Structure prediction request, 397 residues.
Amino acid sequence: MSKIYAVIFSFVAVSILLSSHYYIWARLVRDTNLPQPVRLLANLTIITLGVTIPVGFILPHIGLGFTKPLIWASYVWLGITFLLVVFLIDFEFIHLLLKLIKSIAYLFNNKTVLSSVEKLQSKIVPRVVAIISLSLTFGLCFIGMNNALKIPKIEHQQIKISRLPISLSGMRIVQISDLHIGNLVSRSWLEQVVVEVNSLSPDVIVITGDFVDGSVSALQNEIAPLAKLKSRLGVYAVTGNHEYYSGVDTWLEHLSKLGVKMLRNERVTLTMNGAEIELAGIDDAEAARFGDEHGPDLDQALLGYDHKNPIILLAHQPKVISQAAAAGVDLVLSGHTHGGQIWPWSYIVALSQPVLAGWQMQDKTQIYVSRGTGFWGPPIRINAPSEITEIELIRID
Prediction:
């Protein structure tokens, strides 16, 4: 099943890639009537950059050290492509308006208006649109890269739980999510994240999936700083969808060696100040496609739970909230969405997930969705800052 999914995904991705680049070429090169030497250079640039995207996705699997600059170029261009398409589409109304005016002028045989519109269509409007779109794209790209590559800020969140024992009020959980350690997210960055997390002296550390983008053999040195995470009650985590793309079984074994307790459809009881709280975790929602031994099973995770203690559920994707609410879970901690990462991609992400980012309540179950600590794909974050989340549990009567 995973092979069929990969083929379908690859076909769709290539189709979108080709159509996006054709659209960019049409608006920036064909419609602007550039001088021939400039046009030739623009054609070569768009083709070359377009080819870097699939090459950048393939190169990490080859493992050649000198390819890293090319991988960076491919992912940055992927982000630029998305933003360019967005801004060029935003200006389509101008082209449509000119076509409408031209049609009306043609209908009434107004040659003066026809001539003026044709002049606008031939060079002026396409070039102005191209300049504005390129300026907005590169400006936002610069801001977005700065946002993505810096160490995330601490996001403080108080969550009130009525069933929380009095002695656990003030318990602090630090959540990190969507690290995506790989070709663009390095060991030095992760080391600084670990320092930030440890500086909070958390009671519990949780990692809500998407640790890596690559194999254990390629990334074991990059992810090694996770072994330095320190908390009073331990480090717990669940798988994200990207672990399944990267060799999940080897990663599960390796992460356990780093001191990370992976909760795979299971529950542990945490004891602090003489009181207990339950922590459960389930496999990622897409895991079942990768073998019978994988897949989310909330019933199994809650097996034997007598509802005496409050319970927190770790689940990579927020879409579990309805099932968790029906099961009486007090709090769900998730990631996966990256808060949309690049506006306006957030609107698309929101179509597939019930919560894009932050806190929300469904029935009597609360959910907090991290915007992610790292990033995936383009090293760009726009209107979706990364975060390290410090959650303070508060008892309410």
